[in-house]
Amino acid sequence: MHRFANPARFLRLSAAVLPWSALAAAALIAAGLYFALFASPPDYQQGESVRIMYIHVPAAWMALFVYTVIAAASGVALVWKHPLAHVAAKAASPIGACFTFLALATGSLWGKPMWGTWWVWDARLTSVLILFFLYLGHMALMNAFEDSSRGERAAAVLALVGFVNVPIIHWSVNWWNTLHQPASIMRLGGPTIAPSMLLPLFLMALGFTAYFVALLILRMRAELVARKVRIARMARVHAPAEMLRPAPGGAA
Amino acid sequence: METLSQFLAMGGYAVFVWPAYALAAVVMIGLLAQTVHALRARERDLAELGETRGKPARTER
What we know:
The structure holds 2 protein chains of 2 kinds.
Chain A: H1 7-37, H2 53-80, H3 83-115, H4 123-142, H5 148-162, H6 165-175, H7 195-244
Helix pairs in contact in A: 1-7, 2-3, 2-5, 2-7, 3-4, 3-7, 4-5, 4-6
Chain B: H1 2-9, H2 14-60
């Protein structure tokens, strides 16, 4: 596993993946938008408002997927001390926070015409709001300490403890009597919605995943460069003292 | 033209559908722009540090 710990190896691998993931994101989201807005029928109950689902559902899936990635990276970071794992977790959490925000906001925009309310404190909505706060807490902890390794460890513990929320979100619609409808795709016995609606959902979900991969690579690179800058600045602060010590040794 | 206005009307749900898509576009493009901007800024920092640090250090030694 530590073979991949080498940033040079990561940078080489990511340079190969980045253009493909960016291209895939653009193409899949473009195709997804075409089917979401033009080439799919209105729902017989929801009418045209069903088109909000093609953003809402993939964004909500990404909110859970990105959190799972962060929890896995945090586990790897704490157990195997893999140096890139904290970098990955730090790079991923703002992306996950954005997807969670989109899931909440688009859900609200759908809820107003369909449920007659922007928000209800039902189990699904509340547990996703908690997920959003977990993301914000993770981002805050990462930068909370002067010593960045302490912040990373604290954030990793939060990510792992908070992971208990992910299965709660998934099964909240079954465990509690919620206004939010139960799963219609990821369920035993297969999806219950029409293929013409499944296609834009999957295209958008794959497009969002490719977008996540591209952004994760860019953000990890930025973090690796930021670390180099920190180390270089530290060396610069300490270097003059070390250089001066032997020279004025006789004088002082 | 009628089909376009019909499309934009979204069966009466235009005020809910379009903000949802606009918000997704703003958030996702905004995050991409912020990410690229931050990466470039850090790379610039590193390049500047390399220049100011490398030269005087060599002359002092």
